[in-house]
From TrEMBL, chains A, B:
Residues spanning the signal sequence: none
Family: Belongs to the ArgJ family.
Organism of provenance: Mycolicibacterium hodleri
Pathway: Amino-acid biosynthesis; L-arginine biosynthesis; L-ornithine and N-acetyl-L-glutamate from L-glutamate and N(2)-acetyl-L-ornithine (cyclic): step 1/1; Amino-acid biosynthesis; L-arginine biosynthesis; N(2)-acetyl-L-ornithine from L-glutamate: step 1/4
Site (Involved in the stabilization of negative charge on the oxyanion by the formation of the oxyanion hole): 135-136
Chief location category: cytoplasm
Enzyme category, top tier: transferase
The protein's role, per its UniProt record: Catalyzes two activities which are involved in the cyclic version of arginine biosynthesis: the synthesis of N-acetylglutamate from glutamate and acetyl-CoA as the acetyl donor, and of ornithine by transacetylation between N(2)-acetylornithine and glutamate.
Coiled-coil region(s): none
Protein name: Arginine biosynthesis bifunctional protein ArgJ
GN (gene name): argJ
CDD domains xref list: OAT
Length: 412, 412
């Protein structure tokens, strides 16, 4: 995979390594596993646990901005008021969203069961230390006999080492075709690991998207919060597959402190950003129905925020996305789309390029614009609004027959 | 057709008749025609003229809110500062958008040519009295030899009577499969007639959409402006097929005064609204790739404006639209979509019904919700936000394979 063994220089002279076959158990102090609890009718893995062995339990979180929030989001928001987490239980096979007060009771009961099982296992744990994440069809109650039975089993199967992290990443998949995990090994001997799921419903705030990030760095909750919000704003918030936004989006960052290394805030920010950025690339590449990976960059905006807003408007435009599916360099649709963005632009000086080739200069077609080859899988769209120096990129995909097929053929 | 011979009581006791096989030449004082000028490679009709014989020339207009405006929009906005129109020339086969200063010169030259031809024909006309509308592919210059040649011909072929209006409606079609026209005969002996085109790119402000409305009522420009803005806000502005918005949208309302009847403002408002509403139904039914006509109604919002905003968010959601294409009563996607609307709502008291059957009550699933039959072509989605009495409806369509096919297979 592209991320395997990737190294990069973050300007400070340190060299850090990003590895894709490792996830939440790459940092010291974390155990994880995934099992088949019978929540999914298919019998595939559907329950994952990430357990922080400490010595620290500081944590941070970002959640969906959707006003309709699933029960596990409401629960985990309460848990996060303590700024600490000892464990996260995640299930696929059902979102437990729009399930009313009984659905919330189910989430609460799940957290209690995890706490009880961990306590029995030897680590005194309270439900208020257990985050809960769910993903799957909205609107149905979870099969709680399966969930609670699974919780008892999973605590006993928690593995240390890399295998457990990979099993967890597998168990949170829904329409994902591949698990997504990545680890960043800092040369100063601390590590960040992560797993994510999400293939549809990716949108303005976050993708549908469950993501657990772990680190063995020593960092307090405020440092984690700053690193996570900084990273989410620049990565998950700029991934927009279909403009829809889940009721369940949750990104959690847990620190065990097991490395006994305290990175600077800048080092922590950079590491979490790199991990989230890589996960976004993996999510984009596995999006529902994707045939092309599209990066829409807006330059020349009044501000960076304006650039992101304009890029998002283009990235969400069905006519732009279908044209790209058809490898059609129909730049007029890009102009029509960006013209609806609620930001400043100089309409008669806008320029557009596809894959580096100018197709529109000063608001009018460039020679050869209709002949640009968009047959490849990676498409870059760059739009210059000609009013300032603000820049921003939103990742999206094309709108394909497969997207329509996947989302019309069955309830998901 | 559904609108044929439809009559309705507008509360004042008067009965008024809506007829779909008549258009812009139904009112007295208007001539129109459509011809093949060779702008379209297919040889199909591509040039239309609507001519107001007077005695009045008052007019009103609404235009796209897109910041990227086509040359004919920029031109006609200038014309409309005079609040009068003697003629409108419309072409399909090219949008003349994103064509720079030369494209604007082409539009100007077209208006000059129409004015000159009308003057030669015996009606002294200035270019500033001629509105210009274009529709088709964005980004290419028009073949001006064809356009200017066509202008000379079309003035001589202008017919009175219903035939000319039908020919004009035919000549403005692009991906439309049927022409759209309607006439309203008021029992007080005045008439409103209209034609429209537009099948894709229908969006927040307006559909792509060219629409010319004529009336033989006596009405000054301010009365026309009020009637047109009122109608557009309740009809075209609430038709959202794919969230995209054209660079060329133009709706023009011309009054000849030939009936010598002066309706009240309320009568005029109601008549123009009825005509625009019927055209919207026709546009929706012929939208690109449509297999279902969907009406999304939001009730219980804090205000009518909030209701429309929320309905539009649902109507634009790809996951809702693909579910409806698949006849899947996946109400959870409606909840997830509306939860992102920037309006007040009581998330735990939201209710949803499909085709009149409750599928979600107080934010949770209703018994039998997954069994609702959505196999028919007309789908009603009603969402109650439970915070007020504001109501609004947005018309949309499903997101089908045919939509993807039509918009990916060729530049349009």
């Amino acid at each position: 995979m592209a991320g395997d063994g990737r190294t990069f220089d973050r300007g400070s002279g340190t060299v850090t390594k990003l590895v894709r076959n490792q996830g939440v158990t790459a940092p010291s102090g974390f155990r994880a596993t995934g099992i088949s609890a019978g929540i999914k009718a298919s019998g595939r893995p559907d329950l994952a646990l990430v357990f922080n062995e400490g010595p620290d339990y500081a944590a941070a979180a970002v959640f969906t901005r959707n006003k309709v929030k699933a029960a596990p989001v409401l629960w985990t928001q309460q848990v996060m008021t303590t700024k600490r987490l000892r464990a996260v239980i995640l299930n696929s096979g059902g979102a437990n969203a729009c399930t009313g007060p009984l659905g919330f009771q189910d989430t609460h009961a799940t957290a209690e069961a995890v706490a009880s099982a961990l306590s029995d296992w030897g680590t005194e744990t309270g439900a208020i230390e257990v985050g809960v994440c769910s993903t799957g069809l909205i609107g149905d109650r979870l099969p709680m006999d399966k969930v609670l039975g699974g919780v008892k089993d999973i605590v006993h199967e928690m593995a240390g080492g890399l295998t457990g992290g990979a099993e967890a990443a597998q168990a949170i998949m829904t329409t994902d075709t591949v698990p997504k995990q990545v680890a960043l090994h800092h040369e100063s001997s601390w590590t960040v690991g992560a797993m994510a799921k999400g293939a549809g419903m990716m949108a303005p705030s976050l993708a549908t998207m469950l993501c657990v990030i772990t680190t063995d760095a020593v960092a307090d909750a405020d440092a984690l919060d700053r690193a996570l919000r900084n990273a989410a704003a620049r990565t998950f918030d700029r991934l927009d597959i279909d403009g829809s936004c889940s009721t369940n989006d949750t990104v959690l960052l847990l620190a065990s402190g097991a490395s006994e290394i305290t990175p600077t805030q800048d080092e922590l920010d950079a590491a979490v950003l790199a991990v989230c950025d890589d996960l976004c690339a993996q999510l984009q590449a596995d999006a529902e129905g994707v045939t092309k990976r599209v990066a829409v960059t807006v330059t020349g905006a009044a501000t960076e925020a304006d650039a992101v807003v304009a890029a998002r408007v283009i990235a969400r435009d069905s006519l732009v996305k279908t044209a790209i599916f058809g490898s059609d360099p129909n730049w007029g649709r890009v102009l029509a789309a960006v013209g609806m963005a609620p930001v400043d632009m100089a309409a008669d000086r806008i320029s557009v390029s596809f894959n580096g080739t100018p197709v529109c200069i000063d608001g009018a077609g460039a020679p050869g614009a209709r002949d640009v080859d968009l047959s490849g899988a990676d498409i870059s769209v760059v739009v210059d609004l000609a009013v300032g120096v603000g820049e921003g990129t939103v990742r999206t995909t094309d709108l394909s027959h497969a997207y329509v097929e996947e989302n019309s053929a069955y309830s998901s």
